[in-house]
Amino acid sequence: MKVNVHAVNFAVDGKLVNFVQGRMDKLEKYYDRVVSSDVYLKVEKTSEKENKIVEVKVNVPGDDFLVKKQCKTFEEAVELSAESLERLLIKRKEKIRTHI
């Protein structure tokens, strides 16, 4: 799967990009028709500790899934986003199976 990582208002390091790529690749295990995904990493300038925002947009044929999570670290937010996407992709796969 093609994963595009976009860092908004900061420079992203290679370790984080590799982590995001690896976690997004695992989504293909749940639904093999995933075309690509766009991951937006944002830092909000607030006094709160949970100022890291991750938005993940996954493109599948006929649909797009968008998940947004806000956490203390990017890794935690990516993990939560991926778990939500796993549930969405499993639901999508089951829905398609019932129509066949």
UniProtKB/TrEMBL annotation:
SUPFAM superfamilies, alphabetized: Ribosome binding protein Y (YfiA homologue)
Domain of life: Bacteria
Cross-referenced InterPro entries: RHF-like, RHF/RaiA
Protein name, as recorded: Ribosomal subunit interface protein
Source organism per UniProt: Flavobacterium pokkalii
